[in-house]
From TrEMBL:
SUPFAM superfamilies: Methylated DNA-protein cysteine methyltransferase domain, Methylated DNA-protein cysteine methyltransferase, C-terminal domain
Protein name: Methylated-DNA--[protein]-cysteine S-methyltransferase
UniProt cross-references to InterPro entries, sorted A to Z: MethylDNA_cys_MeTrfase_DNA-bd (IPR014048), MethylDNA_cys_MeTrfase_DNAb (IPR036217), MGMT_N_sf (IPR036631), WH-like_DNA-bd_sf (IPR036388)
Recorded superkingdom: Bacteria
Amino acid sequence: MGRGYTIFDTALGRCGITWSDAGITGVQLPEAREIETRRRLFRQFPEAREQRPCSNTELAIEGISAMLRGRDVDFSDVVLDLSGVLPFNQRVYERIRAIPRGETRSADDLAIELHVAGALNSIAQALTRNTFVLIVPCHRVRELGNGHDKPSPNSGVISKRRLLSLEGARPLAGLTLFDALLAVDRARAS
């Protein structure tokens, strides 16, 4: 089959998805115009050809479409092609996939959970290289606050805040300091 791609409709616009025989290779959220979505896909996956999606890709498309309508989605059955992904990034993505819908973690939290204190730069790089947007929900990782948190190249025109609001999350950035500390204390207590 080789590498394929398709463009599909969602509630927030036309998304793109690419795949190989091994699994999903990338997701592109909608740009302002469909041609821009296609351009981004072609830049990252120039060998992909427009094809009819396989069953794994259909499963991913259904999940992405449902998620962008605000539905709770489980992507655990969607197979990713991680063949070109660094082992450390694979660990980061696995951990991010375990963050529940509507919750967030800081990059510091991820470093602690991965037992790699001081690896914030490496985590930030993994986030910016995430081609599996929504399936690996990097929007659930809060800003680093030091300039290292760059948007994914596949995030399109949809903001991290918008994705979190679709999940029913109340981002900590919108809270007072007291509310933020209280939310952290409650999370640790449960």
